[in-house]
Amino acid sequence: MAQTSVEIPFGSSNLIIESGKMAKQANGAVTVTVGGTVVLVTVCMAKKPREGIDFFPLTVEYQEKTYAAGKIPGGFFKREGRSTEREILVSRLIDRSIRPLFPAGCLNEVQVIASVLSHDGENDSDILAMIGASAALMVSDIPYDGPIGASRVCLINDELVANPSLIDRKTNNIMDLVVAGWGDGIVMIEGEAKEVPEPKVLEGLKLALSALQGAKEAQIKLAKQVGKPKTQIPLKEPNAAFVAHVRQLALGPLNEAYTTIADKQKREDAVNAIHAKLTADLSAYAQFNTAEHEISASDVGAQFESLQYEVIRNNVFNKGIRADGRGLKDIRALDGEVGILPRTHGSALFTRGQTQSLGIVTLGTKDDEQMMEGLEETSYRTFMLHYNFPSFSVGETKPMRGPGRREIGHGELASKSIRAVLPSKDEFPYTIRVVSEILESNGSSSMASVCAGCLALMDAGVPIKAPVAGISIGLISDEKRTVLITDIMGLEDHFGDMDFKVAGSRTGVNAIQLDLKIKQLSMDLIEKAVAQSRDARMIILDKMQSVMPAARTELSPFAPRIVTIQIPQEKIGEVIGPGGKTIRKMIEESGVTSIDIEEDGKVIVASPDKDALDIAVGMIKSLTEEPEIGKIYEATVKRIMNFGAFVEFIPGREGLVHVSELANKFVKDVNEVIKVGDKFKVKLMEKDEMGRFNLSKKQAEAAS
Fold first, then answer.
1. What local confidence, expressed as pLDDT, does residue 312 receive?
2. What region does 35 belong to: left with phi over 0, alpha with psi -120 to 50, or beta?
3. Cα-flanking dihedrals φ and ψ of residue 80, to 5°?
4. What DSSP designation does 358 have?
5. Is the separation of the CB atoms in 674 and 637 below 8 Å?
6. Closest by Cα among 582, 573, 586, 695 to 631
């Protein structure tokens, strides 16, 4: 294949897509370059499906090679290991953008690998990887109805900016939207904002849709030049008579189950019973067997699934009702409770229908911050939200393993929703961890996590700026009709066309996420969905504030207490001491948990014991304050000389108490009056020309 490239404007630079130079044995491969950032994306497809597979096995791996930024990985092995959170989240961005564009019935495994080969610290690699995945599929022989374009829009200094640099994104940026588009609509959204009003969010989406068009056109141009003919994959077509037979047997019972049983478990039991009856005797389908294919349980199951799809959607289209009997905009029953766990720092239980999240808050110190290593500089995370989805939440048994990609993605969405309203580090100098334990799940557990996490933070006494809630909007559509539904449950997510989550406060949006099973969503429908989500969000916020009107004014007695004081930067060395000797001594003598000092002179002292805090703060203040002539200090004798005693009157500061200032009488021998280790009050009399301090014990006694 000849080397071919296309180039388009991208932000303040140009984007170059090149094919034919690297990874030529893959079905398709491209490099995408902006500035000094280069991403290689390869796509491969298995020649035939795995035996017995009944789903489309698409896997996406996004990898950040540390050499791309001139770094060597940390740790013992000194090589890249398991995927980081960032890599998982970008992999999900790519997957969600391209998955709807593969042909229905395709069962051949497809793997997309995006590797960051070079990173200049100015141009992010995630959008490049999204564009590269689509471009690699476009030039390959893999069936794919692309291209998609991708762009990022930020709200910087109150101005919408398309595809800004990493440096610009760090400057007063209050909104970050990542958008993938197909045709004239949007196929995927992942966004974070700080209570940005809905109209401004929609304006940002429109700009993103416009900005991504160039990437689509470039891929079409590249594919025309070097694209391979698409492989014709035989799609499994069921026997029409067999389909009609299953339909005759199951359609009536399914209609009854989905229109008369509102409870999830009872409805599932009824549906499972219908399915079991259909598959109990496969010989009943013998008339539909052919020499090439014998009807199997999976064939019956596929048609049964198709009938459920039809029944659920027709009930929405024709009757305006849903499987649990709700109207199209109805929210399931809401319930909330706070302070339910006695020893945690904050806790809340939030229930919406048969989806339930237990939120738990733990407050920590600077020592609990999470170090984040990536291609950019090392950073520290002071807020974490972890989402756990145990199998019992859906009444199943599965191995207990670590968090998967779904848990990471849902946790990040909930984290975005809440962190916009957290107090600043100066206002609340704690490391905050929120855990959402999903105890029941029947749709939108990530949005339940937002509500439970917010209530738990308020219960913990975290002074959040405003309560936050979230809701999911679904879509049922065909060639002629589109219906938006509020607060989708699990089967509506499974059989519907869209999961559109929006979370925020009464003021505006904090997080937004769109996943589609169809190829695109028009801006008109997006505007309606955003408006419908806001109406629902207000109802949920009303319920949450009836449970917890405002954050508690006192922290849990089990939470650490933190005091922050400011010292002159030139005094930092004195507080730390040689090799950390002074700071370790203060921690030991005061009994505090930790003393941390930042580069600007901010000192953070943490301890569950208020008395220990007071002692440590007093030590720091006395150590960093300038000695004041005439002030009384508590001194400790360090050395005795024949002319007096050297005493420490401020940590690290010594002065001389002359023999004549020890007592109101003649002192013949200093050792007769004091000894090393004695403590007594002294008065600072003067600081001489050589910077030495002269103190008086007798003057301090006279003043008391």
1. 94
2. left
3. -60, 140
4. E
5. yes
6. 695
Phi, psi of 51, rounded to the nearest 5 degrees: -65, 125
| Rounded Cα–Cα distance for residues 178 and 204 (Å) | 10
To which residue do tokens 């404007």 refer? Answer: 9
- Tens of pLDDT, residue by residue over 81-123, are 899 999 999 999 999 999 999 998 889 999 999 999 999 999 9
Read off the pTM: 0.89
Could you tell me if 110 and 49 are in contact, meaning their C-beta atoms sit under 8 angstroms apart?
Answer: no
Residues 314, 310: Cα–Cα separation, whole Å: 6
**Encoding tokens for residue 440?**
């029941």
Q: Do 118 and 38 contact (CB within 8 A), yes or no? A: yes
| Helices 264-279, 297-314: inter-axial angle, 10-degree rounding | 140
**Contact status, residue 418 vs residue 91, Cβ threshold 8 Å:** no
Return the SS3 of 238. Answer: coil
CA 119 to the chain's CA centroid: 23
Query: Which residues have C-beta within 8 Å of that of residue 348, sequence separation ≥ 6?
Result: 336, 337, 338, 339, 340, 358, 359, 452, 453, 454, 455, 456, 458, 459, 547, 548
Residues of the chain with pLDDT under 50: none
Sheet with 110-118: list strands edge to edge.
4-10, 13-19, 28-34, 37-45, 110-118, 58-64
Can you read off the two tokens belonging to residue 390? 């145990």
In terms of Cβ atoms closer than 10 Å to its own Cβ (0-12, 13-18, 19+), residue 372 is middle
**Residue 15 pLDDT:** 98
Cα dihedral angle (618, 624, 630, 634), rounded to 10 degrees? 40
Give the pair of three-digit tokens for residue 419: 């962190």
Residue among 15, 6, 459, 380 at smallest CA distance from 224: 6
Listed residue (296, 272, 269) closest to 282, CA to CA: 296
Q: Name the region of 11 (left: φ>0; alpha: ψ -120 to 50; beta: rest).
A: left
Read off the amino acid at residue 613: L
Q: What per-residue confidence (pLDDT) applies to 1?
A: 61
How many Å separate Cα 533 from the centre of its chain? 21
Q: Are strands 4-10 and 13-19 parallel, antiparallel or unpaired?
A: antiparallel
From residue 487, give the alpha-carbon distance in Å to each of 66, 259, 408.
42, 18, 22
User: CA separation (Å) from 315 to 45, 138, 255, 310?
Assistant: 38, 38, 9, 9
- Residue 293 CA to residue 314 CA, distance in Å, equals 32
Say how many C-beta atoms besides its own lie within 10 A of residue 629's C-beta. 10
Long-range contacts of 2-7 (CB under 8 A, 24+ apart): 2/226, 4/222, 4/225, 4/226, 5/222, 6/218, 6/219, 6/221, 6/222, 7/218
> HSE on the CB side for 15, CA within 13 Å?
33
Contact in structure between 148 and 182 (CB atoms under 8 Å): yes
Q: How far is CA 453 from CA 358, 360, 363, 385, in A?
A: 8, 7, 13, 8
